Amino acid sequence: MKKSLFALAAVGAFAGAAQAQSSVTVYGNLDIAAGQATNSTFAVGGTETKYNIRTSGNGDGALSTSVIGFRGTEDLGAGLKANFQLEYDLTDIGTGGNGNTNQTTTNGAADTTTAVNGTSTGINNGFGARQSWLSLSSSAFGELKLGRTAQSIHGVIANGLAGAGNNVAGSLYSSGSNAASETRAGIRAHNVYVNRAITYTTPTMSGVSVQLQHGSQSIDNETTAARAAVTSNSETGGSITYTGVKNLTVAYGISKLDYNTASVSSTTADTKTQAQALTANYNFGPAAAFFVAQEKKVNTAAGALTSKDRAYELGLRAPVSSAITVWASAFTGDRASDTATSKADLGGYQVGVQYAFSKRSSMYGIYGNQSIKNKEVSAASSTSKTESAGMFLGVRHSF
Fold first, then answer.
1. Full-prediction pTM beyond 0.90?
2. For the chain, first and last CA: distance in Å?
3. pLDDT score at 381
4. Does 21 have pLDDT greater than 80?
5. For the chain, which residues make up each domain, given as ranges?
6. In the chain, which end has fewer C-beta atoms inside a 10 angstrom radius, N or C?
7. 332-364: pLDDT as tens digits
């Protein structure tokens, strides 16, 4: 009897807490596909080294990443709201989400690290970190968000992608093929997420909204005179978006990352990365046109240019019936640095089709190819080309 009373009291307390929250939503996306992907490197003499994967169930998502998440909002009165989002990557639903068979380290072990700059999804036991933030918002002052969230530049680049940021090779957004982790022809200019971020987004005024973002952490070991163990990461970015013309969206974004693991007296290990992008999409009725111009520069502390990528992507997305949508895109660009070995041509293309059974369920087919072709090769770099390609047929359901 006492146990029943305690149980009823616990249920009542939980119900009261739930009622205090204006709304909580559980949402997700399950995407699984059969397909084939390859990563190849070509030596100067023409010798090819190829890694490939053939799968009957790539459960990390080809059209979109499989995720589960929770989001909610509470009305605090006077137009003020408290909001949150907690979202995880379901790394391989094809195996029950027990681990990641595609995104692994070179020795085959799952990548479980999450750097301050958000370069890893922190994959472990089938879950990867994505969104985890709290915010305060109002229509008058905008939104102030604290926690791990998407980079400001990420939304900008997504605005210009005909393929909606899918995970198959052939687009500037792709980090390579959906195959094993050996060398990929990745062109992506930015990290998707930033950790420990402070993000402020203004209200939209005359079609213009602005976002400012900063995240940092430093660990300084002062137990030795040389202070050799110094680690610091700082990431700053922002974006501006214009939607003042019907059917047109134009956006610009920038991201600056300063990563240092050197001592105070020597900053030779300091790496500075800057990415920027200008994108647009316009729906002119029969189809929507998409455009991306992006640049990524990596410099050493001494100012030497490790690499500089410039690339441009054009795409079209069109409904051919009430249920079928097709898209196609292509990109071109170049890579340069202070050393001749890093000069290269960048290129790729992608085609896709999606059939919607309903608003939440669809099937799709995607093929893409992208490559990095070195224009000057020395003894320090004997690779003439790196290529990634992928072809997937899958089903996606959102809930």
1. no
2. 40
3. 57
4. no
5. 25-398
6. N
7. 999 887 655 568 899 999 999 999 999 999 999
